[in-house]
Amino acid sequence: MISVPGISIRELLERAPEAALRDFVGEALLGVLAILNPELLTKDNLVVLALRSAEPWQMLRDPESRDRLIAMLPVAKATELAEKLALGVTGNRVFDRLSDFLRKNGSDNRLLEFFGVAVPERAPGGEESAERTVKPAYPLFAHQLSVADRARDALREHPHKALVHMPTGAGKTRTAMHLVCEWHNRAGDRLVVWLAQSSELLEQAASEFERAWSSRGRSAANVYRYWGDYEPDLSQARTGVLVAGFAKLYALYRRDPNMILRLGDRATLTVVDEAHQAVAPTYGSLTSFISDKRPGNALLGLTATPGRTWSDIAKDAELSAFFDNRKITIEAEGYENAVDFLIDRGFLARPTFRVLEAEAGAGDGKRITAGDTDEITGLGENDRRNVQVLNAIEDLATRHRRIIVFAASVGHAHLLSSILTLRGTESHVVTASTDRNSRERILRRFKGNGVEPQVVCNYGVLTTGFDAPNTSAAVIARPTKSLVLYSQMVGRAIRGPAAGGNATAEIVTVVDTDLSGFGSVADAFVNWEDVWGNGGRSEATS
After folding, report:
1. What is the pTM of this model?
2. How far is the first Cα of the chain from the last one, in angstroms, to the nearest whole number?
3. How far lies 352's CA from each of 99, 399, 509, 518, in Å?
4. pLDDT for 422-435, tens place per residue?
5. pLDDT tens sequence across 503-530
6. 110 to each of 13, 68, 82, 117, 420, how far by Cα in Å?
7. Of the candidates 205, 187, 188, 211, the residue with the CA atom closest to the CA atom of residue 246
8. Of the four listed, 76, 94, 299, 333, which is most buried by Cβ atoms within 10 Å?
9. Coil, strand or helix: which one is 221?
10. How many C-beta atoms surround the C-beta of residue 189 within 10 A?
């Protein structure tokens, strides 16, 4: 019968004579047990005590314990070990030879393997390195830190207003949360109010603050969610962070304007995400009631598109004036445009644009342009156009694992997704009517690391607040004349490898990319510089 090579320490101890076990355990421990309860000194308990005396690897590296274990080996096993160590000795002399060899050479991996002991990567409790790098739990990249610092400095100056302008995917929320944490640490008995429109942006902000504060906060802080079905008692919201939806807060203002004024009394900082919406008639007054209630209250805007329109300078100037013409952006030394810097450094993917020449009417080959808003319904119903869109999606699925589609309507999203599914491409629909559990399930799967291509067809809900770094292709199947909306859609697919995304991205669009800003992320980023002028008070980030 062929014996199994080696022997476990447990088996060796179980086979050992009781006298050898007592010697291994030691007189000190045996003496204490004899006083407490002599009946505990059974052979089985001696085996347990021996096993608990040290980790197996420690027993084999300690010369005294190792010699005792070697002495317990049957002659056949001792000979087997000697052969494994290439000692060339047999008989009773093998024990002395093993002890001498191990005393001179120490315990190598062959000894550990013989006893079935895993080799530890690093000995627990071992000597620490003289130099170690400790990484922060909630870090910023250098360009983000520069923006956060300059925004903080701007908010401390009268009239305490500034707008942070960073491309989609460059980390606006994370950058702002560093500032929010610093601000709240300094004024912990006051309230920070974070305003946004969509539930996606609001949940992103609340969750991000919780992550940031867990490592950067100095004390416990309350987070109040006030949108959708969330109904905290705002009369008790005196300190912490209130994350509120514009629509719900405006409804409260209509019912109880004094409550909004009380929030203004408690607020020390108001943050408006997607700040280009801040000057809409209803939202602008609401924001001002809170941020202007007390002298010294600060107002911070966040946006990738510091304008309201594509070409109406007067309306865009309203936004600039609302934030006192103070725009803080990324300005890297050697680059005229922050987007070029972010692409070169891998924070953003390098996008390529392809226009889908959608057929119109009877098939006259007309290209849909940004002004063709009357074509939205037609795009969802026209079979030839939809075939082109579907072919484009399926083509992208041959080289991209995650593709996001911006449909022209809810019905259009369902139409595209249904046909893709029938034709063998995994596809799901997310719209405003998708229930919360289904949406979370679909998006969690989309954000996962599965290797099979997945497509999400959405209408009106994933343009903001949606972060899926694996997304490397977008199909913009809806016409729009809004450069703001268009930039948001493009931004969903251009997270770069330095931020967990991809080196390149493909954008297939029905919008005419010859229009200013619609064919280049970099051009879109600087489209509104004329209305901000020299008010963009940003320094070079080297």
Report:
1. 0.71
2. 73
3. 69, 14, 11, 12
4. 999 999 999 988 88
5. 999 999 988 777 777 888 998 988 888 8
6. 20, 18, 10, 10, 57
7. 205
8. 299
9. coil
10. 9
